[in-house]
Structure formats: C-alpha cells, structure tokens
C-alpha cells in the first residue's frame, strides 16, 4: 500500500466518524431496544459483532437493552429429550415440560450474552420478564385454541429496567413472563416481548435483527426494498396483503409499538456485519425504518 492510499483510507475513516457525530448527539442518553434473533444468534462471528456493536452504542452514550429469543436452541433441546416441537400459527405449544426446557435454554443463552458483554468491559445483567414483574401476561389463545403456557403481554413494569439503566448496566432480557392470574411462568414470542418493553420504557428506537433485509414491495425483487415508511403506509402494506410470513406479525408489532410511544422502529438484516452501526450512525442506513409521522 502506498502512502497516498493509506492517507485516503484514513480520510475515509475520519469522514465516517464525522458523519456519525450528529447521530451520536441525537441519541445520547436515549433508550434503544434491540431484539436479537435469527442467524446472528447461532453464528459465533455474527454474535460477537452484534454484541460489540451494542457495547459501542453504550460507550457513546446510549442506553441499549437487548431482548433475545432462542427458538432454534429450544427445539434442539426438546429433540434431545425425545419431545417433538409443535407449532400452531407460528406459536410453540408449551406444556409444563416444554416450558421447563425453554426456561433452561433461554437462561443459558442469556448468560452467554452477559458473559460476552463482560469480556468487552461492559456491565450487563441478565433477567427474564418475570423479574420485577417486568412482563405480566395472560394466556394467549390462537384461533380460540389453548396452546399451553404461551403468554400475551398485558402490562409491563419498567422499574427494574430503569434501575439497571440508571446504574450503567445493559439489561439482557429473556422472553419469559409471569401470569397475572396464576403467577405461573409463560413463554412469550420474543418480538412481542421486545415491543412491550420498548413501549414500557418509551424507547427512542426499537430494532429488529432478522434474517431478511427489510420490507419489500415485491419480496421476489430485491430492488423493491422500502427504506422508509410511516405507520399509515405500513398499515396499507398489511391491508393489501403485500407482506406475509414472519414479516406480517413484525409489521403489526411495529405499528402497535409506535402507537404506544416508540419513536422509530427498524427492521434490519442481522447477517450484515455491523448493520446496527450502519443504521444508527450513517445517513443512508440499511433495512427498513418505520416512522411515526409521514415523511413529508
């Protein structure tokens, strides 16, 4: 590498830092919720990069919160004990034995993320939605069917999160809630848990790390990625049947969270290295951003 090439590379790095300054100022002290799932949870390199990015958000003055899933690991452990995973409308049928496995696996995942944070010199605390009554739920039915200990969040108490954030910790949350009627544990869809937490703390941003690039007008045409939309546009996508599969409940969650006070929601491809940083600190960003108000 020539000296001129080295200077150009360093100038490009400096320009990136300069571009990030207004975003760092804008989000300083703001609460942001990162729903962490998909391939970024099972690939060690991606996992390291995501956690390092979250650590950087903390170091530049934000107050990040991680909400993680663990569905693939739960299915794997159920298979090991000879129990078949059952799903109805995308929700895991959860009897007592399945709930025990889910809590065990989610606790393992939770503490591994906390340990990774500590390796990076960041203080983190792993909790579940049971702790401090963070996620209070009722039994969730699907098509009128009882699918066991699957919870629908009806209330959230942010006191434990406020305490951790005020004392410099990053909360890492596993999606297990406490029943308001029976005090029993309930498995919660991680996307639902992230939305409920973002609403409870009035988060500035809610970010979904997924295995898709964002929302497309035509899912078969990658050039139709929608970079930004407001709530009304997102609802039109749903009403027209443009989106389906796993994106449909995500969009519904996004709309609900923003109606309840969350300022912006982002859907990102967690497989892209440093996608979080690109979204937070660059003008163009990646994925799809959903805004509360119309763009123009």
Q: How many E-type strands?
A: 16
Q: Please state the CA-atom Rg, rounded to the nearest Å.
A: 19 Å
Number of helices: 10
N-to-C SSE series?
HEHHEHEEHEEEHEEEHEEEEHHEHE
* Main sheet properties: 8 strands, mixed
Query: Which parts are unreliable, with pLDDT below 50 for 5 consecutive residues or more?
Result: none
Overall pLDDT level: 86
Structural class by secondary-structure content: alpha/beta
Which sequence of strands runs across the widest sheet? 5-8-2-1-11-15-16-14
Give the overall silhouette: globular
Distance between the termini: 46 Å
Strand content: 25-35%
Q: Helicity range of the residues?
A: 40-55%
What's the SSE blueprint?
Elements lengths: L2 H25 L3 E6 L2 H4 L1 H16 L3 E6 L2 H10 L6 E2 L2 E2 L3 H24 L4 E5 L6 E8 L2 E12 L2 H8 L3 E5 L1 E4 L5 E3 L2 H11 L4 E6 L4 E2 L8 E2 L1 E3 H9 L7 H13 L4 E6 L5 H7 L6 E4 L5
Parallel strand pairs: 1-2, 1-11, 2-8, 5-8, 6-9, 11-15, 14-16
Antiparallel strand pairs: 3-4, 6-7, 9-10, 12-13, 15-16
């Amino acid at each position: 590498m020539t000296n001129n090439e080295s200077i150009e590379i360093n100038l490009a790095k400096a320009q990136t830092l300069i571009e990030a300054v207004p975003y760092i100022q804008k989000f300083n002290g703001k609460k942001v919720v990162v729903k962490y799932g998909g391939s970024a949870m099972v690939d060690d390199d991606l996992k390291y990069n995501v956690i390092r990015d979250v650590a950087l958000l903390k170091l530049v003055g934000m107050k990040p919160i991680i909400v993680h899933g663990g569905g693939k690991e739960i299915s794997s452990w159920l298979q090991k004990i000879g129990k078949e995973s059952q799903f109805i409308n995308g929700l895991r049928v959860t009897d007592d034995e399945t709930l025990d496995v889910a809590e065990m696996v989610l606790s393992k995942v939770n503490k591994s993320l906390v340990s990774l944070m500590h390796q990076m010199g960041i203080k983190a605390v792993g909790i579940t939605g049971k702790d401090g009554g963070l996620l209070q739920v009722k039994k969730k039915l699907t098509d009128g069917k009882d699918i066991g200990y699957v919870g629908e969040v009806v209330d959230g108490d942010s006191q434990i999160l406020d305490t951790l954030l005020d004392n410099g910790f990053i909360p890492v949350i596993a999606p297990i809630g406490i029943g308001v009627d029976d005090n029993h544990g309930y498995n919660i869809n991680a996307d639902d848990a992230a939305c409920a937490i973002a609403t409870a703390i009035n988060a500035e941003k809610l970010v979904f790390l997924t295995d898709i690039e964002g929302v497309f007008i035509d899912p078969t045409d990658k050039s139709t990625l929608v970079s930004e939309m407001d709530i009304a546009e997102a609802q039109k996508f749903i009403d027209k049947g443009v989106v389906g599969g796993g994106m449909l409940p995500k969009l519904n969650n996004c709309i609900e969270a923003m109606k309840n006070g969350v300022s912006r929601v982002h859907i990102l491809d967690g497989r892209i290295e440093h996608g979080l940083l690109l979204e937070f600190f660059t003008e163009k960003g990646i994925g799809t951003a959903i805004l509360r108000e119309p763009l123009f």
